[in-house]
Write a structure and sequence with these properties.
Layout (H helix, E strand, L loop, with lengths): L4 E4 L12 H7 L4 H21 L14 H16 L5 H12 L7 H10 L4 E5 L3 H11 L7 E4 L10 H11 L6 E5 L2 H10 L2 E5 L15 E3 L38
Parallel strand pairs: 1-2, 1-4, 2-3, 4-5, 5-6
Amino acid sequence: MKLRAVIFDAYGTLFDVHSVALLAEQLFPGRGEALSLLWRDKQIEYSRLVSMSSGPGPQGSAQYRPFWELTRAALRYSVARLGLAWNEGTEERLMNEYRHLSAYPENREVLAELKRRRVPAAILSNGDPEMLEVAVRSAGLAELLQHVISVHPARRYKTDPAAYALGTEALRLPAREILFVSSNGWDAIGATWFGYTTLWVNRGGLPLDPLGTEPSHRGRSLRDVLPLFPPRTPASAPAAPAAPVTTPLPSTTGLPE
């Protein structure tokens, strides 16, 4: 089977969701890491909650909220849970920091090489369109991506199959011919269940969730994508014709030559 395109998760895969810990530490000395970790956990928990409450049909859940709203709600919960002093200005500073998350350093190198190899590359993310537009533009990756796909039209979050299906629809390829890349173990498993060929970029060296499903591939950075799309070799030039073999004619003079 030949892989023909690649889809990247955004948050945690292309963009470091814990880069907000630097500002959080400035605002709340000694609590920045704890705030960042709890914020991310609640953000994903809320996305699952609204997806699990989905009704039938294409309209999704009546409880659906854009990812930006869930991100803000998760931040407010985390601050309250940790008992941190709070005001509106602090909230806006952290939310703005999340809007401009740091990109991982190998992103541009890998995406540029995929483009050179003529491999279509896309993002499929829980982020709503406005969030993704700012993040991609801030990282300078827009010209290297063929599609930036938000789950927003499906009104369901990953790992709902309706969310993963947006990737196959955009690229017009079977899931098995698309490499889905995520640093989130749960996302790699969900994408595998959907039918994608998957690469789990396990940046933190975490154990795999013991659910009986193994991602198609494992790696430690985005650079592990490139061996799965080897460069196209130029067509071999036709071999030069062999030199004709000639047999010396017999001497007609009777004298040695």
